[in-house]
Request: fold
Amino acid sequence: MRHSYLDEYSQINSLIHHLDPRIKIIIFVVFILFVIFTSPTSFKAFALYGLLITILVLLSKIPLQFFLRRSLNIIPFVLLISFFIPFIKEGKVAGGYSFGTLKLTVTYDGLMIFWNILIKAYLSILCMILVMVSTGFTDFLKALEKIKFPQLITMILSFMYRYIFVVEDELMKMQQAKEARSVGGSRWFHAKALANMLGVLFIRTYERAEAVYLAMCCRGFNGEIQTINDFQLGKKDWAFFFVMLAVLFGIRWAGG
Amino acid sequence: MAKKVIEIKNLNYTYPDGTEALKSINLDIFAGESLGIIGPNGAGKSTLLLHLNGILKDKGQIKILDLEISEQNLPLIRSKVGLVFQDPDNQLFMPTVFDDVSFGPINMGLAKQEVISCVQSALKEVDMLESIKRTSHHLSFGEKKRISLATVLSMHPEILVLDEPSSNLDPKHRRQFINLLKKLNITKIIATHDLDLIAETCLRVALLDKGKIVAVGDTIDILMNKNLLETHSLEMSSVLS
Reply:
């Protein structure tokens, strides 16, 4: 089981890891906003933002390759959305290709938007990865809750974190039980068996949800989950917050 | 005679699908005793337990610590009756051990410091204090069982209700768990078909089959009654015989 997928690097001893998760979330959201509101032509600003996030990543002592690998999981979605823009956007033509009857033209405006989406998405993705990976998932959820993020969402995420592996285990056990009795049989037959398994899994998770709800009621659940606030904002957190703000404003000013 | 903490009078329960799970149950449970509820699979043991803190309600009268089960009394009753479910994955629903054990005390409205000390003493009681920061899905089955117990001990219940506490535990952890139960000095109700566990922890036993109480009496009398046990799909323990 890859139980450590989410929290692989959350226990490292570094400046970034020791920051209060609330400050971390807020300052990185601010960071992302700064990146989003940068004009697409201020290349210097993007370079500086890139430098800043690189420094933060180095401070976190999390291996760089890990960031690159993790970002590769997300960037294809961005590419998928933005890839066609250079071909669709109208404007001054930068080049054209024709495949038989199909004619494709790429415009400068389109390329600019493509670059803009790509660089902003990538910088934001790096920010998100850094926050998520340097904070234990449970602390992350608690921090979201304490900064008044809708509790319904944090509750759903928290149950997901608790039960996703339980459900995965159940599926795996069913799969093994099926394999153990599988002797031959057509592909269609196996596909049907898989469909049944998913149905059973759905019913089981549904029943588990009921049982969990009962267990919650037994311990006085009244519609709201409360946790103890054990976060403490220290001098270091505030220092980080203001230094980051100053640097972000500095980059905005320098990059125009 | 000690004080009655639970009084069940003529309790019936029918599941929404029409299955009659409990039929005219009468049972009194006294302060400080350990009562075993034994019976085959599907006898209605778990259903009976779910009535003891108002999760299920139907015909019949239940009084817990002299309180009727009503909406108004539920929070108090639920803090006095600690119910531990059979599957620890249902009992432990919060992401970390601390959050889980503190769930009850926080809902009871205790102050932060009190909550923390309740959690620590409950975990100490089940010998799991060093796991306070761990996430629940990293625990072994035996550890989950013990933490499950801690999640209700932290609420300082007067009555502890356990559903199949020894199921799926290996002998070593089963032994640990039994010793743990023996140490706890509160009223206990233990539903199981692990008769050796009952023999060690309970002085009185109720035998449940097909939703009815077939016999109530001293543990020795019932567990030594080979005929009675075998008619109700149970088996006399080889240790006792």
Summary: Chain A has ten helices and two strands.
